[in-house]
Structures are given as C-alpha cells and as structure tokens.
Fold each of these.
Amino acid sequence: MVYALNPDEIYSKSFAIIKGIMKLDDSLKSKIIMRAAHATGDVETARSIIFSQNFEDGLFSPDDDIVTDINMVKYRISGYKIRCYIKDNDVMDMAKRLQISRSCIAMKKACREMPEAVYVIGDAPTVLISLIEEVIAKNAIRG
C-alpha cells in the first residue's frame, strides 16, 4: 500500500480528492465547500451549504474583529484581529459553577463585549446553536 506521510502532501492530496469527487472549481464558493468537506469528512454535508446570492458582499475585511470558540481556530486564521475567550479565568469559573461548557460561556461573553464581531465556530455545536439564536434575535446576519 502506498500512502503519504508528509503533512503537506497529505493536505494537498486530500483537497485534490475532494475537489475531484465534488467537481469543484477554484471559486470562493468551491473553496468554502471543499474546506467544509475536509473538516467534516462528509461531502454530503458540504453539498448542503447554501450561499445567498450576494454572499461575497457580506464577507469580512481585515479591519473586522473575529471571535472564535477555540484556540485551534484562532491559530489557523492569519491577517485578522482574533479573540478567543475560552481560557479567560472568569469564563472557566462561570462554566464550572454553572456546569455549562466553557465555549458557551465564552461566546456569551463575546456577544456582550464584541457584538459586531464576525464569529467563527470550530467545534462546539451547542455554541453554534446559541449563537444562531443571538444573531436571529438581533437581526445581525451578514452576507
């Protein structure tokens, strides 16, 4: 059996395979779909992504603040001001006291402190659900 061990080669081959299976081009939409398929390991989930007709008009700029639920995402995004509250002492204390995930508490704090930020969710589905509720309640959908 032949397989790659070099991380860059694995990454490149993975994306090439996904691109071929899903018949994607080099457009921004295709790149987003490809990353979703790679992150989830599920092309059907990636195929379910729906873009608004003018979604690119709502994309963020380097001047925007970005908040993420986990440091792993924070360290993978470059060129932007990024904040992650997950390791803040008050977040950890409140999560322990209320027996709620740190991610959820961190995002609630972020919504209070940075309501205009762009939110990027890495791995906490409950955070995504509560963030969606916040966004809908405040009519803050972008793009």
Note: The two ends are 45 Å apart (CA to CA).
Amino acid sequence: MKLLVRNLARTTTEHDVRLLFKEHGRVTECTLVLDQETGLSKGFAFAEMPDPEEAFAAMNALNLSEFAGNKIRVKRASH
C-alpha cells in the first residue's frame, strides 16, 4: 500500500522517512519529493508498505503525529 506523508520539515531526508515508517513494518520503497532548485524537501513523500495491516498501523500511528517539529499527515495515496 502506498502512503502519502505531508507537512514534512524541509530538512527531512528520505532516510528519515524510511526510518519513521520502518518502525511499523517493512518499507519497500520511499520517495521524498525534492525542490529542483534547492535540492531540499518539498514537504511531502511517499512510502510503500506491502503489508496492508502494517500500512494501516503506520497510518494510524503517524497521522497527526509530530516529526522533526512538524505535525505530519499520513494517508493512503490515490493511484
């Protein structure tokens, strides 16, 4: 299941996002969307978790939680 993470700090790295979701299960892919000019995070990312139960657990645990000083939002990504 692909999850969308929004409101990430601009200093957040792809590795940070992967570690955050890895606490809740297996992460097969993680993509942090970067600003082409600055190379910094645009504030959102995608995380792919193959097990739906783990993905829902991550979504429930992380949505509206604080990460790197920001209250992040996590939901299922639309295809």
Note: Residues 2-76 form a domain with the Alpha-Beta Plaits fold (CATH 3.30.70.330).
Amino acid sequence: MSPDSAQLVLRCENRLRVPTERGKLRFSAEGATVTLDKPHRQLLIVPTAATVVLLVKRGPKLLARREFDAVVPPLPEVRCWLSDMRNATIDQGGAPDTVRQPNRRFGVVLQAVPAADFSTTMPVDARYRVGHFQLTVLRGGLPVVSVRPADGEIDLAQLPVQLQADDQLLVQVQDVQRMNFRGEIERTPCSQQFRLTVPR
C-alpha cells in the first residue's frame, strides 16, 4: 500500500493506492471507516480519530499493519472586499440616482478560499464558504448599527441606516463552513475581522 500523501485528513475521503494481489484481501481500520474501490485499485479511508491503524489480511493471516496520523483540514483563507456595482449597473441601463446611493452602489463580498494543496488533492472535501459573521457600521469611529446576516451574504440595501462616504464597515467572521464528500456541512471556528471604507 502507498499513501497518496504523508498524512491523512480527518473527516475527509483519503485515497490510498493498493497493489494488485492474488487472493482476496480484507481491509479494516481502527479510527476510520474503510471502503475498497476495486475498479480504481484504491482504498477510501475516512479518519474519525487522530491516529488510524490500517490492517490488511488474507483469510486469518495478517499481511500488513500501517499506522497513520490524521490532521484536521487546513483552514481556508477568508477574503473580504467591497464590490462596486456602479459600472455594471450603468452598463445595464441602471438609473444614475440609484447608483449614487452607497447602500445600492456597493456590496460586501466574503469568500473562503481553500488551501491550494488541499483543493488540488481533495477537491470534493475542500468546498468552503463563510458561515456566521457580524457587520458593524462605524461613523466617526463610533458604531451606528450592527447586523448578523443569517444567510452568509451582506445586502447593504437592507441596512436600517443610509451609508455615507468614509463610513467604515467592520466585518467580524466567526466561522467557516466546509462541505465534505458526502455533502455534509461542518462548521469550524475562524475568528477574523476586516475594515472596509465606503469610498467618496
């Protein structure tokens, strides 16, 4: 058996190559679930513990025992920026008066970008998005209003106050969400904050 990586990743579908063997091999593991993908000659192993012990048997005979460390999935890089809808709206025939209103002109974009190696080797386990966060409008350094969007998106047009030039938007991220190979959502704490200034 040869691992595709030096370590396994917890709660992810790790693929190990297995050689062609005569006779029926049986695979089992402690600290993980194991499935044999015969057409691709791969062992699909999903760690549930920090240490995984993999056993290979032919009949009652133990052929191999391998121990692996399992690490948590790497945190994604959270990015946050202001998108300017002015040009897009004008190109689409939008009303200039509407475009000049900061609440309608600007949008806050949050993105969770997975680590490059993780995304390349385990793309179906590296699907991230920003989960819970808080947006606070600061004017003159003082908080004006705070909101906690429920759906992971920030619609500035829904704010209860009208934004002004030079207002600051304090975005505080509490967690990110990862969708695994089964389509299950896993929340991971991720404390980050960003300050964005409303342009003139």
Note: The CA atoms of residues 25 and 58 lie 5 Å apart.
Amino acid sequence: MIYKLLFMVFILCSIPVFAMDAVQGGNLPQPLFQRNNWWNQNISTWPTDSNSASYIAFINNGGVRHLHPDFGGSSGVGNGIYGMPYAVVSGVTNADLKAVNFLYADESDGVNHTTGQAVPFYPIPPAAMTQSHWIEGGDPGNVDLRNDADRHLFIVDQDRNYLYELYNVFYDTSLGQWQAGSGAFFDMNTNNRRPDGWTSADAAGLAILPGLVRYDEAYDDSVSEIRHAFRVTMRSTNGYVYPASHRAGSTSGALPMGARLRLKASVDITQKTGDRRVQKILRAMQQYGLIVADNGSDMFITGTYDTRWDNDILNPAFSALTANDFELIKLGYNPTSANTFPLSISKVGDGTITSTPAGINCGTTCSASFNSETSVTLTATSATGNIFTGWGGACSGTGSCIVSMTAAQSVTATFSLNVTTPVCTLSANPSTVNAGSSSTLTATCTPVATSYIWSYSTCDMSINVCPAIFQEMKACDATKNTCTVTPTETTTYTVMGVNAGGTGAGANIRVSVSGCSPALNATGALVSAATNTGNVGVTSPCAWTVSSNANWITISSDASGSGNGTVTYVVAANTDTTARTGTLTIAGKTFTVTQQANSTVGAPVCTLSASPSSIAAGGSSILTATCSPVATSYTWTGGACVGTSAAICTVRPTGTTTYSVQGINAGGANQAASATVTVSTTSYTVPGTLGNDVFVLTAANSY
C-alpha cells in the first residue's frame, strides 16, 4: 500500500495552492466507482446459490426477519436522525492532509508500513473537529464516543474521484492528533480490491459509501433508477467471499462477508409501498441486491444521514419485506465474460480522443468494444493551435464525457483553431548556479508562440525591497523559446509569448546565484572635464565581467576576471559645457561616472546684421549681433548704439552710417563685427537768375 501513498503525494504536488473547500453531503458522481464495479453490477440474472434456503433460514433464526431502514428518523426534540454522513472536498493540497493514528495500522492506508508511522494522507475537513454531523453519530470529532458508536467519517475528493473512509474516528485534543480504528483509501477511477485479509472502515474490507441508500438518488426524479447494491448487516458471519477481503467471524451456517442477497423478481413491490421513490429503492434490491458488509442486526439496510427522510413512509415499506422475500446469489460469483457494445468516435478538426478504460486513441483507433454497463470516460486533447469546442452524440457540452455502455454508443468531438494569446510557463535548468555559470531558460507556451519577449530584473520581488523593473534581454533570440543566461547575482527572468492572437502575460522564473557575493570598493566617481583614468577595486570569490554602457568611457584593463581584482577605465575629455553621466557594469554591480562640464571658454566671434540694411531718410534699422560662444556683454561704436550693452540696437541714421560691435565673455573679446546702414537722399534743381542751384533734401530739412 506504500505505492498508493507515494502516488497521492505526487498528484497533490502538481496542484496550485488554494484553500480546501468542504461541504456536508453535496453532489456525488454517478455512479460511484466504475459501472462494472461489484457495487454497480446488475445481478438480476445471476445464478442462485444451491444452499440459499438454508442461509435464509439462518437469518430468520427460528422466526421471520423483516427488513429495517437503518437511516432516517424524526427531527423532533429528543429524537435522532440516523444514517451515515459524508463530506465532499475540493481544492485539496498537501497542507490539508492529516495523519491519523490507527488501532489496526497494519491494514490501513496512510501508514508507512516499513516504520509503522502515520503520515499526512487524509483530507479531513477542519470543521469535523468541532462541528456536528460530519461524523456518524452526530457529535463533533473532539468528543470521544469510540466505545459507544462506529463513528464513521467518509470524504470524497471530487477533483480526483477519490474516496477516504475512517472507522471509529476521534480527535484527541491533548495530543493534537486524529485517532481511528482503521482507514481506507479508494481510487474510484479503478476497481481495485483491498488486499486479501485487509479490513477497511467496514469489516468486509469494502467501501461503504457506494452501498448506502442516498436521498439524492431516491428522490431526484431525474435519476430514473438506482443502479447499485445496498449495504446490509447480519448478526454474525462466517469468513468472506469475493468481493470482500476480510472476515469478522466464523459462525457455522452464517453468511460470509461479501455474500449477495437479491429481492426475488416475483415480489410485487407495488404491494409493499405506494410511494414511487421507495419503489425505486426496492427495484434496486431486485436488480442490484444487497451485499453483506458488517456484523450488526439482521437485514438492517444502511443509508445516508439526511433530515428529509420520512420514516413514516420508509418503515412500513421495509418491514413489509422479510428475509423469505430474498434469495442468495451463488457465493463468490464473479462473471468472467460479459456482453460487449461498440463505442465509435467521429472527430471534426485537429485533436485526439482517448478513453478510460483504454481502448480508444483517436487519432488512429476511433472505435472499441467495452463490457456491458462499463462507464467509459472520454478525454479530448487539442492539437497545437487548436481548442476543443464540444461533444455531440452520447455526450454534450465541453466537460467530461462519460458514456454508460448499456448499448452501442457514438460520440462526436469537435476541435477548432485557437487564436488566443499564449499562456506560458518558464523553467530554468539549473535554477541555482554559481556566479559566472550558465542556466538555460525554456519557455513552454500553449498555444505555441511564434516569437518571445525576454527580460530580466535583479530586484528581489519576494521581499519587495525595490521596484520590479524588467530590462529587455536583447542577447536572447526572439524567435527561440530558449535562452542561455550567465547571471552574476540572483535574477528574475520573464518571457512573454507572442502569436497571431497577441502577446500573452509574462511568466517568471528566478535563477539563484549561490557561493558568490561580489562587491566594489566604490559605487561611482566624479571626474573633471579633462581626460581621466580611474580604478575600481573588485572583491569576489568567483568569476566576474565588466562592460561600459557609455561610448566615452573605455575599459583599459581586462574585460573579465576571477577573484579579487582592479578594473581600470579611461574617461574621454568633455568638450561640452554641460556635465554628463555614464555607467560601468562590474561583476553585476553598477559603477556610475559623472564628468564635469568644460569650463575653458573662447572669446566670442561675432557677426552683425542690419534689418533693413537700406532705409529712406527718416527710417530705422535693427542691428543684431550674433556671437559664438555666447557673449555676456557688447561694446558698440557708431551712432546712437554707443553705450548699449545688449546684442540688439535700433538706429535712425540721417546718412549712410557704418556701425561695429564686439562681443565680450570670460574669454575676452575678438575683432569687432561691422554693418552699414545706407540712407537714400533726394535732390532738386532750382532755376535762378545767376544759374541753377542744386538742393539735397534730407529728413532734417523742411521747406
């Protein structure tokens, strides 16, 4: 049984961590276990045992034994509700599994059978410890009634179709430990029996829950028939036969554990009860029968705990039947052959259909025959770039397709192209490296990506100590799903898959760097505008590299090293009048170089322009000095600009005039720049007695 434990742990490790959900009662799979399981086999035509009459006589014990429903009751004050409760859980993680100390540890699951120690195995709802009606008898788990009742606890993991059953359970608060008589695990996806000689939570070594009369089956009108046997107890038993695996007595003449009783076909159940729901229960006794599973009272039928049972209906109907209405199926009967029916798959689009039990892999094998009443589960797997869009025929929707092989069946599966964005996972091999060693990142995307966006961050996002700013990894080939990295410190890498549907969300992986914590003797340097040479000390127990991120800083020493060392760099002269900053990456650390501005300024070289350069008498012109480098003051000569220190001067000359200006800054002054403003004049000839006189009119004249 150790293999079962290991299998469980493996499965649970692959599931995301969420809180386990648990409910009392709840929906159960139809059927529990496979359709051809012994609980679910139609025995209406199976042969009777040659000693059937003598076994029935033993049950009657000199009188007449009537059937009795060992469930139901009254919800009135002072009255009890009988029956066995069950819990349905989902989202189970390893943290939800509890270890249980067993009285019969050698025949129980959840035990290391080498050491005899209990291991975390059972997903017991926390509420079962302190709340009522999770455990048979009604009292919470922390109430010790092990000497007064069977105290069964049943748990169904609906995600995996697993069943856990515990007998005589109790939570010992003083030890902080669950205790029980025995415990059993059943994978309801299979028909595996307990090993011969092993008990379960029932004396016969069988599962209990699939043999209970359930209210949800009897009173759900969408369930046309109950298709399983019921659990029955006897006052004493003698050994065991298939399908049981354990004995609990050796009374001569008594039925063995695993014996099957069948309500005779000649019994008119409509004469026993007029309630059609109870008639459904009695029909199941004719078709699927009763299985002897424990010692108790003769002909007591077990059902689930449910306050809706009405014993005013149940008791008269059950007591109308006696042991004489039943016959014994041939002891240990296990038919080796059965009718088979074909199951055919039609497939539209690109994908594969497989079956459990095996037989169909379509693909290539799209039809197979299965035993009558086998429950076949079909699974659709889309091809790359496709999605499954639904079932047709014997199944519908997009969920699980479960086909009951009561006749020939056909199912259609449809796939279509998927244009959704990729959902990716990212792995690193190895995920821990020494500084300077390499790790290969591999992106796995569904649907397949056609390109990838790679980035990284050295921020420790797990403790939120810095902004998680990711930088693009240009060294990675965007067309490939792998990238080899050589981190010098612990780094988080991310990848986003891209396809025709767009860009998917980023997937992260952290590559840890161990055994190396490099350090620099400084975080940066401030240098003058002149050419400079600097050194940075590196302390490192491992290999490291250095690179420059600025074209005006060059590495004059080796670009890599191992152990302690010195990095030498050269800073080119700064000819600009503004400071600048660049960085080096040394052993994965950032070293910042700040260079001051150039403070040596030359004397301005200026030009002078006049706009306009020619004016009419009385007009104006704007003179503009343009200097490089910039002048801080100006010296003007000529006309009204003398004494002006600005770069612009407006003039109104009365005659053609040449102006000049010198720009001045910290570097001094250069040769003056000149500009001429031409003034246009008008002349008139005035006749006179002594000859003609010529007058030149300017703006200053008036006549």
Note: The helical segments are 2-13, 52-60, 215-218, 276-287, 311-319.
